[in-house]
């Protein structure tokens, strides 16, 4: 959707390539529900990256062979290349089944993002950072239905408004917000890399590794900066050129909210982010008394949600 050429266009295109990997860290949001999360979660994350990477390489290779190496312009300009290749090699009768499979994959991806967001809304509501009504669970299904309803309703309204009044079609809306969210995630990755170095260098000096805690985060940060550079120069077409400003505005809102919380209810600042800090053989973070926040159970008696259906 946003035009670009040369190396700047490659960097800009990396935004959408990285967007395809964003869901790899969804397992991290299930730390409270996992036995021995310090072992299970890293395995799940590394496994997800490996499987996703191999799958994308295989699919891209198959599509390249399908169109032919000399027809990459046709491949790049085909918005539904999987449908095109199906009709060309298997026949038109198979196209609906491939379309259903692609739609199922898109829905599964959306559900994964939805579940991660709902889990965070639930945790923030349980801890009192956001309205506690978000921590209510269904009396029968034991799922965080309020947080799920808020997340789903917000997404539907946002999609309808932007698709109807700002962008020409839903696909452009999806691409715009997907790219916007990916850029925000890249900035988070940079902060995480810097935090890893500072934490181990200052507080865990005996466990500090130059390779793991300095070289690898530095290389990862440099790689992440490439697509960010592609958004700055050359300047992409409107409204994609607004991405950095929208993220800066959202960050300012978040910092303002954090400042408000730190002044009005400072004990909540300590609670935030502790959900995954305890190992599986220690007390559940949601049950312990942290900074004066005691017995943080959601209505219904459950500490952590089950399904989000």
UniProtKB/TrEMBL annotation:
Residues 277-309 are annotated as: Disordered. The chain crosses the membrane at residues 6-24, 45-69, 89-113, 145-167, 173-201, 213-236, 242-262. InterPro entries: AA/rel_permease1 (IPR002293), APC_superfamily (IPR050367). Keywords: Cell membrane, Membrane, Transmembrane, Transmembrane helix. Its main location: membrane. It is found in: Cell membrane. GO terms for molecular function: transmembrane transporter activity. The keyword Ligase does not apply. It is a multi-pass membrane protein. One of its GO terms (cellular component) is plasma membrane. PANTHER family: AMINO ACID TRANSPORTER-RELATED, MEMBRANE PROTEIN. This is Amino acid permease/ SLC12A domain-containing protein.
